[in-house]
Amino acid sequence: MDNSNRTTTIKKAIKPVTFTIVVEAKKVNENGTFSGFEFKSVKGPNKSAKAVSPIMAGGAIYLKVDTLEGITVLTESDAATATKTKLF
Question: What is the pLDDT of residue 83?
Fold first, then answer.
């Protein structure tokens, strides 16, 4: 297996944070599952909080902050090797 595209991602344990998201759903299927999300507002631990729901992600919602300002880091964990993928 070729590991040339692998990067090290550091995971940090943090004190729990709260995100408040206002979402508008554009579709619902016969099972009652909503999709086609549009984010009206996102409030997180700092002003850089973002949320996206890619169409191909099956209704998943990804949350991100650009800085750790306002987030309390408890401990640093071991590095994990993973392929880095740009989500935003």
Answer: 66
Report the candidate in 33, 81, 40 with the shortest Cα–Cα distance to residue 60: 33
Beta strands in the chain (DSSP E): 6-14, 20-28, 34-43, 50-52, 62-64, 73-83
- The pLDDT tens digits for 30-77 are 999 888 888 999 999 999 999 988 878 877 889 999 998 988 988 766
Could you give the CA distance from residue 75 to residue 77 in angstroms, rounded to a whole number?
6
Domain coordinates in residue numbering, the chain: 6-75
- Tell me how far apart the alpha carbons of residues 58 and 86 are, in angstroms, rounded to a whole number: 18
- The residue among 21, 9, 20, 14 whose CA lies nearest residue 53 is 21
